[in-house]
Write a structure and sequence with these properties.
The complex is a heterodimer. Chain A has helices at 3-23, 27-52, 56-86. Chain A is mainly α. Chain A has one domain (4-86): Helix Hairpins, CATH 1.10.287. The chains are: A mainly alpha, B mainly alpha. Chain A: It catalyses: a quinone + NADH + 5 H(+)(in) = a quinol + NAD(+) + 4 H(+)(out).
Chain lengths: 99, 657
Amino acid sequence: MSPTNYLLLSGLLFTVGAVGVLVRRNAIVVFMCIELMLNAVNLSLVTFARINGTLDGQVMAFFVMVVAAAEVVVGLAIIMSIFRTRRSSSVDDANLLKY
Amino acid sequence: MTAPPIEMASGVGSLAWLLFVLPALGALINLLAGRRANAWGHWLGVGTVVASFVLGLLIFFETLGLDPEQRSREVSLFSWIASGSLNVDFGIRLDPLSLTFVLLITGVGSLIHIYSVGYMSHDPGRRRFFAQLNLFVAAMLLLVLGNNFVMLYLGWEGVGLASFLLIGFYQDRPAAATAAKKAFLMNRVGDVGLAIAIFLIWLELGSLQYAEVFARIGEVPSGTVLAITLLLLLGACGKSGQFPLQSWLPDAMEGPTPVSALIHAATMVTAGVYLIARTHPIYDLTETGRLVVALVGVITLLIGAVIGCAYDDIKKVLAYSTVSQIGYMILAVGLGPAGYALGIFHLLTHGFFKAGLFLGAGSVMHAMNDDVNMRHFGGLARRMPITFVTFGLGYLALIGFPFLSGYFSKDAIIEAAFGQEGWQGWVFGGAATLAAGLTAFYMTRLMIMTFFGQERWKDFNAAASTLDPASGSSAGHDYHPHESPVSMTAPMIVLAVGSVFGGFVLYSIGLYEWLAPSLGELQELEGGALPHALVPWLVVAFSALGVLVAYLLVGRRPTPVQRPEPVSLPVRAARRDLYANAINETLIERPGIWLTRALVFVDNRGVDGVVNGLAAGLGGSSGRLRRLQTGFVRSYALSMLGGSVFVVAALLAVRFA
């Protein structure tokens, strides 16, 4: 199968993730959309590694996974504590940090 | 001219450094020992100066024993400044000129120190006073003893500092503080001139030692020589209270009276005369420079004499008399080889009688509760006989009564002034003669108002006793004139004796020959505007006229206690110092204030405006920009996405365009 298809899928997933981040209010869903974007990028990285016949892209993908895992830990903890204090998981409600 | 060979001093002369170290030590100990020294500090001050005087006498007699050619000696102490091409040794020049000054400074200084013990006996700051007097004597000795211009400058500034401290001795009086500041500032104007002159000399000759500078001054272009002489004259004007820097000297009378006697009559103000006499090899080269010096002297001696006629403050009259007499000295040294020695001669005799007059004035003030207004005095001759007699002798010496000291020295100057050729002889001689008449007038007026006539102070006592005695308002006017203690009258007697015989003795023992190794032979002038034999008669006639006019105007009618107002235009002008202060204010002070105001305005509006405007602009735009931070997370996400897309699009566009 042509690598172009993988790239198209990757672009599609990324778009879905980006639109999800922009339009959804639930912090958990936004978070999952971010994961989706990260994994879309992973997919394209691996694809490019395949195209070029080197391992660079795959190594980069591992880095992204590690960072994503760490981010999940911190992000979920933040979402949990915000939910505990404000009884809401809407990102629009967390708007105190402004001008 | 050929410089006399300079030899190293041996014998007592090699101890010359002790001359100024002793008073400096006295000042140091008195300042550092604190209250512990209150009991004996003043005697230490007297002791160090007297010791300096004795040492000065020893060196003087040792020098007298030498041949006239060998009387200029040097003592090299140590290398003071050694930096590249600028090398200055700390050395002493012992020659007739400096020794003459040493004897005057330490001699008159000793008498005034002794007088101050009595005069300041009730003052809590007496120890500080003696420390500062000692500092002054040390600085003055350094000034006259140095063998190079840097040491001269060191002493010059030291004298300025001591004078500032002593004028402002009564720190709690605003007038004294202002007078001290004024003296310091006006001295500074002159000091700048002296400093630039020294820079110029070094620039031209690369040396500041007197011996080398005077030997090589002929190599300097004549324009530069003229500049150096004029700048040196500016320095002399500042220190000696000469036109146009004369107005600090009368204000300096805010200090204690011994200070007025020591600094502002006998020694410090003569530093300018010393400077010109010392640098006479430079002045010898420029006719124009000497002419300017003489003109300054003439203007000043007239100014001083005219203003002296109008004041009622006994110390200010004497101060303006000092201004006028130093004008004579400056005129004399401005006459060139015919006058250098005459200027120093008048300086010496003036040192005696003016110090005596000031001490007498201090004695009168001491008796009159520190009142200085002569209109409150009167009839004091019977109350204070010793003061009256000593003051009277000083007075006769000052107005040039025949065969008293002022007669010899002042007449010699006027003769030399008339001895000039052409218009200069008439102008210089005429002005000096006129001023001699004015001197006789104002001094006679002072004598009559103080020592003769009705006892006007009694009216104040009577008036005061009718006031409420408990209020204490009468304290300032409750006069009980009495003779001063022996420690005050003894120096006055010594100085009075000096005033009477000093001129004759100095004249007959050959002061001019003694000074010749330093100042060159005194030139006898031939011809000139008036025959020499006529001049003494003329001067005595003018002086007698002055005395007569003063007797007719002041002595024959009662002196009003209140100053008469309104008065004629000349009197009004003289009372206001011939508008010297007004002129300084209009020409220097006000433009200075305007300039500083303009600069402050530029600083506030211009420099600060740019900085503040920048900050305000940044602050304002930041205030608007922060509205972008809405707190709406998804809009941040959108802008991040938009930004990323834009960057990627831009990259692609660059790549494939």
